[in-house]
Amino acid sequence: MPIEPRDHAETVALFRHSLIGPLALQSLSRGQLAEELRDTGIVVNSVSPGFVKTDLTGYGVMTPAEGARLPVQHGLSGTDNGRFIEPDGYTPW
Asked: What is the pLDDT of residue 66?
């Protein structure tokens, strides 16, 4: 049976908690995959665009177009490998 949130704050809390597993998994696999593909010219990174205003959250600090800037920028640059990238820089996990 799905959990039905009672209000917007609970919806956001459930969304944040739903990210814990995928973030942990990508953190582990990102470094391993980046190392395996190092000599192929393929780079592997994870990029968090920041808090984007969506239909789910209803608010945020940037539009979806603005939120797409960081993933596209790092996807095209090819200069980083095996990193977790956020708007404020690199996160060492």
From this structure: 93
In a domain, 2, yes or no: no
Half-sphere exposure of 64 (CA within 13 A, CB side): 5
Phi-psi region of 85 (alpha: psi -120 to 50; beta: other; left: phi over 0): beta
Best mean pLDDT range from 16-25, 50-59, 62-71, 73-82 = 62-71
User: What is the domain count for the chain?
Assistant: 1
The Cα-based distances of 82 to 13, 29, 47, 50 in angstroms read 28, 9, 11, 19
For residue 59, the enclosing domain spans 8-91
Question: Do 50 and 67 meet the contact criterion of CB atoms below 8 Å apart?
Answer: yes
